[in-house]
Design a protein that fits this description.
heterodimer, A: alpha/beta, six-stranded mixed beta sheet, four-stranded antiparallel beta sheet, 10 strands, about 30% helix, B: alpha+beta, 2 domains, ten-stranded mixed beta sheet, elongated
Chain lengths: ~220, ~400
């Protein structure tokens, strides 16, 4: 499903010094797997997920999603592939504050060729999975943290992706919301999606939902 | 074309309403001022062309010590013998301020039995008073502005003028007249020449100046040289000289306004540059989110293009409509006064509505694409950066 071939990522920090965040990672994640990547803050988990999603281009190496090299595709095709195959849940949700719940949810579908009616139908459908359909016309600013998280997840799923990437999705959740999230993951597992989640939340330790568990350390992935 | 993106762009304007409203207002004001000023200037130049159309080819003035003095009438007879000259007309005219007014009326003496030196005056006189021959001597015809001024100063049917030594000349009102160009008739009083001779104490053998009609344009310079040779003490003003003087006056005023407009433009561009040099953090994040969820650079730029086009076109149309309403319906209050000058008796002409496509095109091209580019460039800068970097 997702392959990383000697993927490296370097940031140019202040001055001209280069910081290597991902160091020649080679990885193969088969379809329908639930993968957990742990590691302390700043270890490069988020960067790895962004690189897998094609949001960030690697400095070297290749990211292959569904047998297509996403890192070498021109922007238009990479965007199309991201739109069609990948869903992303951001750590800070990254919702657009002035848009309504439905507008935020359907944002990935706007560049598609779907009609507005179909876009709205899909948005409402995915929101109803999270019991959020009544919030469609509400501004996301007026939602609680848990509700915002559900909108962020709905947005990640609205394009019916094959791969879902989640970056620290439980960082701001209390125990109740955390349990709700675990329930959601169970639902997703039955749907056959591939999940790659980066988290340093200790509440995931020993969780049986995940098929594979990696630890990120100094830019390298270590299989646990 | 993706209608969903068009719709999203409209929504984006609503979401950033105050910010966009500010740009829209500045933009509309600039278009309004620019088109108003050039429309007034254009209408005035059209009026000016009508005035120039009826000017005599040559005007002969006698000079002494660098100042104009009265000219012997018999010189007109001699000038008329020059080949190419159709008519040499000794004019009697002068300025007069009624009552305590500081406004100058232009009093023109006309021999109503003969053809006037000005076709436009002839036509106007005959149009309003075909019975002119039966009116006698003690009457006057007034341009609209002159008539209004006289009414303001209490002169109704009778206009009493006083010469320098106190002699009273009473003239009966015979009607108002107008010409194609209100410039040439607005402040004018036409009266039989004899009345002016009494008022200004003119010697019967003298006139204010002599106008010369030369039908063949090619001969004007030759005739001018011949008159100059005959009368070295005269200054001969040709129509091109007058045309240049009129042009200079209007070009000067248009130039002053152009300078003002350049200042306004500079302010506009500074604003645009300021906008272009950066994009708000919120908008950067929004672009980052769009890219992260599957929008391409092309998609992001499309909505920015739609959004800026909406604002620019709407503001352009608003400015254009406002300026046409202001100039051609309201008759350009204030601005017109600035253009027509500071004379007390300003010509009250109606600005003729017209659409100058070239002007509209130039204004459009000078403003709309610049704003659109200034909106797209910062969005493009944000869009080409990796999405997660923009979202941080």
């Amino acid at each position: 499903m997702i392959q990383l071939q000697k993927v490296s990522l370097e940031y140019s920090s202040s001055g001209k010094q280069q910081t290597k965040v991902i160091d020649e990672i080679t990885l193969h994640i088969p379809a329908h797997q639930f993968v957990l990547i742990t590691g302390r803050s700043g270890s490069g988990k988020s960067s790895l997920l962004s690189t897998m999603a094609g949001i960030r281009r690697p400095t070297s190496g290749d990211v292959i999603v569904n047998s297509r090299s996403i890192s070498k595709l021109p922007d238009t095709f990479a965007a199309e592939m991201r739109r069609e195959s990948i869903g992303f849940i951001f750590q800070k949700y990254h919702l657009v504050p002035d848009l309504t719940v439905l507008e935020n949810t359907t944002l990935p579908l706007l560049p598609s060729s779907l009609s507005q009616r179909e876009v709205d139908r899909r948005g409402t459908e995915v929101l109803s999975r999270f019991e959020m359909e009544e919030f469609c016309s509400r501004s996301v600013d007026s939602l609680s943290g848990g509700e915002q998280q559900r909108v962020a997840i709905a947005r990640a799923l609205v394009n019916r992706p094959k791969v879902l990437l989640a970056d620290e999705p439980t960082a701001n959740l209390d125990e109740t919301l955390f349990d709700e999230f675990i329930g959601l993951l169970r639902q997703l597992k039955t749907s056959g999606i591939t999940l790659i989640m980066a988290s340093h939340d200790p509440r995931f330790s020993g969780n049986t939902l995940f098929d594979l568990h990696y630890k990120m350390e100094q830019g390298k992935l270590i299989k646990l | 074309m993706n209608l969903k993106l068009l719709n999203f762009a409209l929504g984006s304007i609503r979401r950033h309403l105050w910010q966009r409203l500010l740009v829209y207002t500045i933009f509309t004001t600039l278009v309004f001022l620019l088109i108003s000023i050039f429309s007034i200037s254009g209408a005035l130049q059209a009026e000016q062309l009508l005035t120039l159309d009826d000017l005599p080819e040559l005007t002969v003035q006698k000079m002494r010590a660098g100042r104009q003095v009265d000219i012997p009438i018999d010189r007109s007879y001699e000038i008329e013998t020059i080949p190419g000259v159709a008519q040499a007309y000794p004019r009697v005219w002068g300025y007069y301020s009624p009552g305590s007014s500081t406004a100058n009326l232009t009093l023109v003496g006309v021999d109503f039995a003969l053809a006037s030196y000005k076709h436009s005056f002839n036509d106007a006189i005959l149009l309003i008073r075909p019975d002119i021959d039966s009116l006698g001597q003690d009457f006057y015809l007034a341009g609209q502005g002159a008539h209004d001024l006289l009414k303001e100063y209490g002169y109704g049917e009778l206009f009493s003028l006083y010469s320098a030594d106190g002699e009273r000349i009473a003239l009966n009102f015979a009607g108002t007249f107008s010409t194609r160009s209100s410039f040439e008739s607005h402040d004018v009083i036409l009266t039989p020449e004899e009345n002016l001779r009494k008022l200004f104490k003119f010697n019967p053998y003298l006139a204010t100046d002599i106008t010369v009609r030369v039908p063949n344009q090619e001969e004007i310079e030759t005739v001018k040289r011949k008159i100059q040779y005959l009368y070295p003490d005269c200054r001969i003003i040709s129509r091109p000289d007058l045309e240049a003087a009129y042009h200079n006056l209007f070009d000067y005023r248009a130039g002053v306004f152009l300078a003002l407009m350049i200042s306004a433009f500079m302010s506009f561009f500074t604003l645009i540059l300021d906008k272009g040099s950066g994009i708000s953090l919120d908008e950067q994040q929004e672009i980052g989110i769009m890219k992260a969820v599957g929008w391409s650079i092309h998609n992001v730029l499309s909505i920015k293009l739609f959004e800026s086009m909406y604002i620019a076109l709407f503001a352009y149309m608003s400015g254009l409509t406002l300026s046409y309403f202001f100039v051609f319906v309201l008759d350009a209050p204030v601005l017109r006064m600035l253009f027509t000058g500071a004379s007390v008796l300003k010509p009250e002409f109606q600005l003729i509505p017209y659409i100058d496509l070239q002007l509209l095109m130039i204004t459009f091209l000078a403003i709309v694409p610049i704003y659109v580019f200034a909106s797209i460039i910062p969005a493009w800068r944000s869009a080409i950066i990796d999405a997660d970097e923009v979202m941080r």
